[in-house]
Design goal:
613 residues; 6-stranded mixed sheet; 20 helices; 21 strands
């Protein structure tokens, strides 16, 4: 017997700003669905998800939710005003005694529930919104870019949670590896229409290209028919035309059909030029160390970066990737050691916080106001790699409309801000690109184009990213920052790093290789990275296990305190008769906490035994 769908949208139409976003849209989400929701930035993915969540009311159509079904939505920009801490927000919809769920999820997502809302960063707020959704455990989860602002370790934890759940979910993400691992069906938004394929994201690009090829063929055939009918209309005698008014009407119908065809939006017309060559040696770090407030960021680290290298930096949030990047580019001085920059360097920086963009400026002002792009005496043009361009025309290369050119930067989505920052960077010739989290919020097609440009770029690239697929495509060398000042150099991208880390200890690698060489060179010279061995820390524990062992005593203590509080509540002999629902919920919470305590104690004992050999 077929199961009733969890959610059904029928004949949905929605108009924003005078332009129809959707018209006649139908979709169904079934129990157990694992759906990728894909489409270009601005195509309406987030809006459609809000319609599915019941947060946006369509102009026409119906949203039908199965009786008793709960829907949870993770917003990219959660509203957390009125809450004292992130934990208060994340637990706001949970029953009494279920707050521990937030703490468990927070540990995996690596955020502190005690963080005051007033000081929380945008990334912390988004992690709290994700924790809220996972703790609520609804029958249908709607996840809008859940991996943004998560490090690779937290992304892996989330991936495992979603693999194990039986809950249906719809997922928007730019992270190919994440989508491939989790999805079994794909919803594709394209020019206001939503198509569904019963295959996961792995098969999406082949499907998309086939649809577009069929469209191109149909358009070509239609153009040939119109051409033939138009020739007949011009050459035919008036008498024949009078006898064949049906063909005249058919020509008009064909032209209307062609006009109704919505052409695909072209890809962004981005270009990247390396300009003047730098010296062969771009950066050399010799035995550098850095610590903040007694916490080591990097210790006795050496590295040589040569022209053309693609060097990626990976590691948990807060471990110091951006700090090391700033030391290598001369923005920040090390506490010990030295960094030598090569000759003829022309650097362009993509900053993860988008600090180069003033939210109160218009897009026009953001380009014209850049002194390196300004054309003297002309407020309508910008210098693009040495040649003047009209500012609107240049913005159109990055898929912005003329109307957006006069809009404030604050009105842009995350992906649009990333494209605007790329427009600024790509207007200038450079031979050293520093990209700190460039993949956040970009759609998959723009990521593809950026990857192609980086492949062809003649300069050197330093890259910080948590996108495993992007790292595999770009990096020729990976520097893994593993905490406690350890920075280890590995050949290749993310997958290569994982393979080497799980195998035997990697040899020292003082130089990153140029792309032409394919992988990092191995050398035993004195400039080598001191921490180039992936051997486990003392006691046989990995970094993650050691971190977990340090955290477990606090978790055990917290569970014991909550068990004591619940036992005190249940010791009231009149509670059952006075408040039976409260008694039942407290009893269930007590049983859950006791189970979690037993698991935590068992895990602590196993790790302690492993640590002591």
């Amino acid at each position: 017997m077929a199961r009733a769908p969890l959610l059904q949208l029928s004949d949905i139409s929605l108009t924003f700003g005078g332009e129809p976003l959707f018209a006649g849209l139908d979709l169904v989400i079934q129990p157990g669905d694992r759906v990728a929701l894909v489409g270009r930035n601005g195509s309406g993915k987030s809006t459609l998800m809000k319609v599915m969540a019941g947060l946006v009311e369509p102009d026409t159509g119906a949203r039908v939710l199965a009786p008793g079904t709960t829907v949870g939505y993770m917003d990219q920009h959660p509203e957390i005003a009125g809450f004292e801490t992130l934990g208060d927000f994340a637990a706001s919809s949970l029953d009494v005694g279920q707050e521990y769920r937030v703490e468990m999820v927070a540990e995996g997502l690596k955020f502190d529930p005690a963080t005051p809302v007033s000081t929380a960063s945008g990334g912390e707020r988004r992690r709290a919104a994700l924790a809220k959704l996972l703790a609520e455990a609804p029958e249908l989860m709607l996840l809008d870019e859940p991996t943004n602002h998560l490090d690779i370790e937290a992304i892996g934890w989330l991936e495992r949670q979603l693999m194990e759940t039986r809950t249906a979910f719809v997922l928007i993400s730019h992270d190919r590896a994440f989508l491939r691992a989790l999805t079994r069906a794909t919803l594709w938004i394209d020019r206001g229409a939503v198509r569904r394929q019963e295959k996961g994201f792995e098969a999406f690009e082949e499907w998309r290209d086939k649809v577009w090829e069929e469209e191109d063929q149909a358009r070509h055939k239609l153009n040939r028919r119109i051409k033939a009918e138009a020739r007949w209309a011009v050459e035919g005698i008036s008498a024949r035309r009078k006898r064949n008014q049906g063909r005249v009407r058919n020509l008009q119908a064909l032209r209307e059909q062609r006009a109704a065809m919505i052409r695909r939006q072209g890809a962004a017309d981005m270009a990247l030029e390396s300009g003047q060559k730098s010296g062969k040696r771009v950066i050399e770090a010799r035995h550098i160390s850095k610590a903040f407030e007694g916490r080591p960021i990097v210790r006795d680290f050496s590295l040589r970066v040569l022209r053309g290298d693609r060097v990626a930096f990976v590691g948990p949030n807060g471990v110091g990737k951006t700090t090391l990047l700033k030391m290598l580019t001369g923005e920040l001085a090390p506490d010990a050691g030295e960094v030598i920059l090569g000759t003829n360097l022309s650097m362009a920086v993509f900053d993860q916080n988008r600090a180069q963009l003033d939210p109160d400026m218009t897009l026009w002002e953001s380009l014209v106001g850049d002194k390196e792009m300004r054309v003297s005496g002309n407020a309508d043009q910008v210098l693009v790699r040495g040649a003047p361009r009209h500012v609107v025309g240049y913005l159109k290369d990055f898929l912005f409309t003329e109307a957006q050119a006069r809009a404030p930067v604050r009105s842009l989505s995350g992906g649009e801000k990333a494209r605007l920052l790329l427009a600024r960077i790509m207007a200038k010739e450079s031979n050293l690109l520093v990209l700190d989290e460039p993949t956040n919020d970009l759609d998959i097609e723009t990521l593809d184009l950026l990857q192609e440009l980086l492949d062809e770029y003649g300069g050197t690239v330093l890259l910080v990213s948590h996108d495993r697929d992007f790292l595999d495509r770009i990096a020729s060398t990976t520097i893994a920052m593993e905490g406690d000042g350890r920075a280890t150099v590995y050949a290749g991208g993310w997958s290569d790093y994982q393979a080497q880390r799980s195998g035997t200890a990697a040899p020292e690698m003082p130089e990153a290789s140029a792309p032409q060489a394919g992988r990092a060179k191995r050398s035993g010279s004195s400039g080598g990275a001191k921490s180039a061995s992936p051997a486990l820390p003392e006691g046989g524990l990995s970094f993650t296990e050691r971190h977990r062992l340090e955290k477990l005593p606090a978790l055990i203590e917290r569970l014991e305190a909550e068990i004591a509080r619940l036992e005190g509540l249940l010791s009231d002999p009149d509670l059952f008769s006075r408040a039976p629902v409260k008694f039942r919920k407290a009893s269930e919470a007590l049983a859950e906490r006791q189970q979690k305590l037993a698991e935590a104690e068992h895990e602590w004992l196993a790790l302690e035994e492993k640590a002591t050999g």
